[in-house]
Amino acid sequence: MKILIRGAGDLATGIAARLYHSGHNILMTEREAPLTVRRTVAFSRAVYEGSAKVEDMEARLVHSLDEAYAVMGDGNIALIVDEAAEIRKEFCPDVVVDAILAKKNLGTKITDAPLAVGVGPGFYAGQDCHCVVETKRGHTLGQVIYDGAALPNTGVPGEVGGYTTERLLKASGDGVMEPLISIGDMVEKGQIAAYTGGEAVYAAMSGMVRGMLQKGVSVVKGMKIGDIDARCEKEHCWTISDKARAIGGGVLEAVQCYEAVKGRFAMVMLAAGTGSRYGKDKLSEVLAGKPLYQYSMERLEAFCGRERFVVTGNAVILEEAKKRGISGIVNREPHLGISHSLQLGLQAVLREKPEVEGVLFGVCDQPGLKVSTIQKIWNAAAVRPGKIICAGKDGQPGNPVLWPKKYFGELLELKGDTGGRAVMRKYPEQVYVVEADERELKDIDRKEDMGSF
In sequence order, what are the residues at sequence separation of 6 or more whose Cβ sits closer than 8 angstroms to the Cβ of residue 360? Predict the structure, then answer.
């Protein structure tokens, strides 16, 4: 697959290594003046050196997408100076990985790619990305989080060789970086390691220099400019760290899970009800500042890598779907019941994508449903092929429901106001429930239901 990685520091390089060795095409983006301390194991130095080798891989600096394709075609990793990753609009990646490690989101959106991965603090899975990978050293390092955020930044570096804050070299003043030692050198506690803005930077411990910013780069007081390792293993200066490999493994897990379902499933949102119990057009009612139907539109938009449809007779909803790149299916006979809407959607999917292996059906009056819950349904489909997978509570099924192709025939035979639940009851052993909270599963049937959100 085509994968865009924002950032090319040492941790981003560890991620790239996992993905590259799994056969994916990698394009990385960087700023004009990289500030990577462990630059001997980072592709970011290709910005000022033209190319960078790390272990058995090479990244080459490119200036256009055509050059990037040529580099990737040669079996290498492409790197371009593009801090905002604008090239993603032309590259159209399958996956975007934000590995800038800025401790905050600098612009990555869940709609940037079919799979958007945030690395470390600053991202919330299900909102600005599909998943987050934990970066804090410890028991959960490399964990893939599909609902929530990584552990917050404590400001205290992780322990390496028994040392934490002592192992860091920090700028003593604003100005130009002037290193006195190189990566791989030994340094003694109290030794001057560099000058920043003319101010001396002293080593707070003895050990081997594992990282050091390049000469001439501009720094500000307090910025990390170097890293000392008490273990004094010279090989560590030239090879990817355990932490970077663990984080890369988490990203690879998410990517491979997405690849397992890529192109196999479609999404259909049913929005053609008459609102008889509500008393009027409930889908246009405003909830927390936006129409009820917008919640479903946003959830569909978050999964741009799939065929997406909305079945409705509402002209406003059809126009909104068009703006978001979602196919609209007109239901002119809502009185025929939910079975008619379901079948219109399924027939549209089969016309557009006859090879589809399954369809996820959802309803438009379920405002509390999380994007992360839908993502968990896709994940379950990757490891439970052929199962009917739905959101639910305590093992009891609810909406949405992912239907494998083998049940399409029975769905097309439903009549009246009978939905897929009738088919599901025939195959209880084939149903797998992804647990969700009650608020997610609640739909809006009556006006009083609006008050619970």
Answer: 265, 266, 267, 268, 374, 377, 400, 401, 402, 403
Distance of CA 15 to the CA centre of its chain: 13
Strand order in the sheet with 388-393: 327-330, 307-312, 265-271, 358-363, 396-404, 388-393, 431-435
Reported pTM? 0.93
Contacts with 75 (C-beta within 8 Å, 6 or more apart), sequence order? none
Q: Which of 57, 105, 103, 56 is nearest to 85 (CA)?
A: 105
280: pLDDT strictly greater than 90: no
Token representation of residue 179: 């290193």
| The two three-digit tokens of residue 166, written as one number | 């002592």
Query: 20 and 72: one domain?
Result: yes
Burial of residue 106 (number of CB atoms within 10 Å: 0-12, 13-18, 19+): middle
Report the CATH number that the domain containing residue 207 is assigned in CATH: 2.40.50.100
What is the amino acid identity at position 380? A
Residues 6+ apart with CB under 8 A from 63: 80
Supply 173's token pair: 């003043």
The answer to whether 99 touches 10, Cβ cutoff 8 Å, is no
Residues 79 and 148 in one domain: yes
- Type of residue at 409: G
pLDDT at 444 over 90: no
What DSSP state is assigned to residue 129?
A: B
Q: Per-residue pLDDT for 81 more than 90?
A: yes
Helix axes 315-323, 292-301, angle to 10 degrees: 30
**R_g of the chain computed on alpha carbons:** 26
- Residues 6 or more apart from 426 whose CB is under 8 A from it? 410
Work out how many domains the chain is built from and give that number.
3
Look at residues 311, 290, 289 and name the one whose alpha carbon lies nearest to residue 300. Answer: 311
Task: Specify if 160 maps to a domain.
Answer: no
Cβ contacts of 167 within 8 Å, gap of 6 or more: 157, 160, 161, 204, 205, 207, 227, 228, 229, 230
Structure tokens at 10: 């040492």
